[in-house]
Amino acid sequence: MPSYRQMYRLATILLHDDAESKDVVHDIFAHLLDDPKGLKEETAEHYLLTSVRNRCLNVIRSRQIQERVEHLYQPIRATRLPRHHYAAFPRWSHF
Fold this sequence. Notes:
The protein is about 60% helix and about 0% strand. It is mostly helical. About 10% of the residues are buried.
């Protein structure tokens, strides 16, 4: 069975963040305490390391979504168009 250190190392390699890596491993152990039925001794190592990988991928996906949303809500800078673009709008040609 993999140790906490192995699980944490895998999470750190994938996430590049110590705090999030600890959270991922902690969440996996907390889930096992709530529902230990999913863990069998003969497949424990594979199960735990796969769980770490999957949780890390979820964290990465969540980060990417958050970054996209933050990018969408950034204030749009007003850009001035060149003068010739205003020619079609005589009222605005004084800009």
